[in-house]
Amino acid sequence: MTLAFLNLTWPTFANGLALGGVYALMAVGIGLVFGVLRLVNFAYGQLIMAGAFALAFGSQWGFPNWASILFCFGVVLGLSVLMDLLVFRPLRTHSPAVMLVATFAVAFLLQNIALLAFGPLGKSAGALAILNAPWDIGGVFIKKIAVISFATAVGCLVILQLLLTRTPLGLHMRAAAMDFRTARLLGVRANWVISGAVIVSGLFAAVSAVMLSVQELTVVPTFGTQDTILVLAGVVLGGLNRPIPATLGGFSIGFANGILGGVLPSNQSQYLPSFLFAAVIVVLLVRPNGLFARGGGTVERV
Amino acid sequence: MTWIRRAVELLAPALLILGTALLALEVSSYLQAYFLDTLVKVAIVVALYVFIGNSGVLSFGHVSFVAVGAWTAGVLTVPEDQKRITMPGLAHFLLTTSVGNVASLVLAAVVGGIFAFAVGLPLMRLSGLAAGIATFGVLEITNNVLTYEQRIGPGLNAFSSVPSTTGIWQATIGGLVCVVVAYAYQRTRFSRMLRATREDPAAAAAAGISIYRQRLLAFTLSGALAGFAGGLYVHLQPLQAGSLSLNLTFVTLAMLVVGGSGSLLGAVVGALALNGIFSFFSAATNTVDVLGWSFTVPSGTAELTLGMLMAIVLILRPNGLTGGRELSLPRRRSVADLEKARATT
Amino acid sequence: MTALTVEKLSIRYGAVEAVRGLSLEVKPGEIVGLIGPNGAGKSSTLHAIMGAAPVTGGDVRLDGTSLVGRRPEDVARRGIALVPEGRRIFGELTVDENLRLGLAGRRRGRNGGGLTRAFDLFPILREFRSRQAGVLSGGQQQQLAIGRALVADPDVLLLDEPSLGLAPKIVDVVFEALTQIRDSGLGVLLVEQRAQRTVALADRSHVLANGELRLTLGPEDASDTDRLVAAYLA
Ligand SMILES: Nc1ncnc2c1ncn2[C@@H]1O[C@H](COP(=O)(O)OP(=O)(O)O)[C@@H](O)[C@H]1O
Ligand SMILES: [Mg+2]
């Protein structure tokens, strides 16, 4: 059974869904922090890179997989919190441009720390590579990691949705993203809301690190950078301020990336980033506020 | 004496460049390379400043104009017999056309300007994050195309056999040209209008200023300067597409922001200071002598220091070292000035 | 119960001195009016009480404890609730979610009346509790804004021009609600432009102009239009 369309096969389709899922997680991770801080975190990819290195070291040191994954979560979360305390909060009242450049600086810094510590060739990735083996699903062979990635992403997003809609912290986070000033006047604690967003964002970065590093043979200091740039484009495409549009934007670009990467012949697929970015630019020109955004949101800062 | 004040606005950055050039003449030819590199960075950062400083809008796309400038000047100056060997895939027209050094720089500026104009035509309608991401897209697309398209350049390889005409003279004059053009633009009413849109877009629009046109003009001019700087760069060292991408974007933006993106002086100071520090640590990877104390640092220290410095400056002095102001003479108030001041209040 | 004291309060935004040396007091079970022309400094005063405007002099105390320098969320959690100018409803959230947002200002260990209190005062909110707040009419939104402030079970309620842009009939509903709120023992500081109605309702009304206190009026002055006009023009 094949999808009789271009060279699209079920495995390619599954890879597209999986990459879409991971990009959607990253998009939400970036979007949540943007919601409460009005800050686009360029260094998100470096969180993922750090997580991937943690996994690689875990397996080098002979940790069992669950321990490597735990280690990865610890490193990414710790780094997120540090980034928040040392950079985001001191810059909270500055202009968006300054904050953007600052996170750019952090990204550069972390990348070079990795370069300094681990060298340009990086490390061979963790022991999770076995997940690249296929599962036989009704005669179609689909990589285990594709199924796991997609399922994990959906699971994470459902949990997030429950957090946002069913808990006071989630309600506070949504309100803060809409109008931080008024939310604070009602008693919403700025610090808690920001910490909540940073932690969830960090958790999603860790999950993404695990999923993305399975498919790579080596982890290098630039790991995740290209993905993050694409996700950023996707998030802006969807509409930054709201979780669902951001998710859709991230998913779309990941899905397109995964599908086109599998379908295009290699002399065209090398231009894949160009196609994706050209599409993003065209969409932005037509709908500057994003593809899925309704009306104008409040963009007040604290 | 307003003309003196104006002259200082131009002289301060120009003298800084000349000072750097004089220092460069004093050091060994090995260290001189770092000074030349710094002067080229000044040119790039000043080009960046013409748009970002005057409009207040961030652009992540300027390095693509540097890159097309470098490609133009590079492809057109590699000797034809060399081209056949190093860039066999080159389009016939490019293969057979060669120009001199100065012509290649002029063409680099022209191509940079045209490219910026073409990109700006649609993109200058955007603002805020959408504009940021779109310019980022331009950078990624340009880099992607230059990396793989062998009809217009060396593709994945570095340029080889580009005449190294960017010596101390060319680097200095190049830097000065950028500063003078930036200054001249800054004195026009176009720049004043653009700055007005930065301070208060609504009021500027109400006064009949077209934000779009003014931004497009500055974007084009700054693209031309960036292309020119790219030409200087390719005549200085063998470049490849990978070195004209994210890292250079970051480094040059860092220089502008650290110096103070609001002023020409800030752009020059930022480029000199950061690239100076950067060069020092790069040189120190092969041991440097400081006052008789020689030391070596691991490679990557330069980048690390730069990133840290930038973060610190951003947190402590978000308007940059110069605070975004030009150097101005302390105002010694004459009696006439005081009279005038009293009359207006 | 708790009294709010504002003493010689000064507020400055850069070069603009919005309020100079304002003193007033709100005791439990009373409504204090603060009226004055646009730009007089009324909203600034409320924001300064909440810790959301720069205080350059004087003091704000709740039951003797100074509030100056505290964060807005901490002031809210000490028992002062603000109904902001322009209502500031979260239009994309439901009525219910807006009300539950008000619970953020609840003090530790207090359950208060919670949502039922708001529903009892404004039955319309119960009826529309699962609707998007953005689709409510202006009057309903104002009721929601007041309800949202009350679910935190505050001791002091600050209102910034609650009658702004409302039809006269709705204004009656809002002012009637304020009377009930007062009778339940809260202190109310009511900023208004409808001078006459405010003076008639409030136990005391202060007239603010150009950042300074001009005059204090009692309910008996409500019919004395000349005095009101003179105060505004002073
Ligand atoms: N955030 C602010 N920044 C600068 N000036 C302000 C700000 N808020 C209010 N002002 C100024 O303070 C003065 C008082 O404003 P406000 O308190 O809003 O008056 P009112 O509510 O009585 O109409 C006005 O001159 C206004 O321009
Ligand atoms: Mg007001």
Summary of the model, kept short:
The complex is a heterotrimer of chains A (302), B (345) and C (234). Chain B has 345 residues and is an all-alpha fold.
Architecture overview:
The complex is a heterotrimer of chains A (302), B (345) and C (234). Chain A has 302 residues and is mainly alpha-helical. Chain A is built from 12 helices and 4 strands; from the N terminus they run H-H-H-H-E-E-E-H-H-H-H-E-H-H-H-H. Chain A has helices spanning 10-37, 44-60, 65-88, 96-118, 144-166, 168-178, 180-185, 190-214, 225-238, 243-263, 266-269, 272-286, and strands at 123-124, 134-137, 140-143, 218-219. In chain A, the strands form 2 sheets. Chain A has a two-stranded antiparallel ribbon with strand order 1-4. The N and C termini of chain A lie far apart (55 Å). Chain B has one domain (2-344): ABC transporter involved in vitamin B12 uptake, BtuC, CATH 1.10.3470. A two-stranded antiparallel ribbon of chain B has the order 1-2. In chain B, helix 1 packs parallel to helix 13 (264-284) and helix 6 (101-123) packs antiparallel against helix 11. With 234 residues, chain C is an alpha/beta fold. The chains are: A mainly alpha (302), B mainly alpha (345), C alpha/beta (234). Chain A binds chain B through residues 40, 87, 90-91, 94-98, 100-102, 104-109, 112-113, 115-116, 225, 229, 232-233, 236, 240, 270-271, 273-274, 277-278, 280-281, 284-285, 288-289, and chain B through 56, 58, 122-123, 125-130, 132-134, 136-138, 140-141, 144-145, 148, 246-247, 250, 253-254, 257, 298-301, 303-304, 306-308, 310-311, 314-315, 318. The complex binds adenosine-5'-diphosphate and magnesium ion. Adenosine-5'-diphosphate binds next to strand 2 and helix 1 of chain C.
Notable features of this structure?
heterotrimer; B: 345 residues; mainly alpha; ABC transporter involved in vitamin B12 uptake, BtuC; 71% helix; globular; disordered C terminus; C: 234 residues; alpha/beta; six-stranded mixed β-sheet; four-stranded antiparallel β-sheet; binds adenosine-5'-diphosphate; binds magnesium ion
Give the termini separation of chain B. 22 Å
Q: Which structural class should the secondary elements of chain A be placed in?
A: mainly alpha
Tell me the radius of gyration of chain B. 21 Å
The residue-averaged pLDDT of chain B reads: 87
Largest interface: A-B, 40 and 41 residues
Globular, elongated, flat, extended or rod-shaped: what is the shape of chain A? globular
Major pleated sheet of chain A: 2 strands, antiparallel
Strand order of the largest sheet of chain B: 1-2
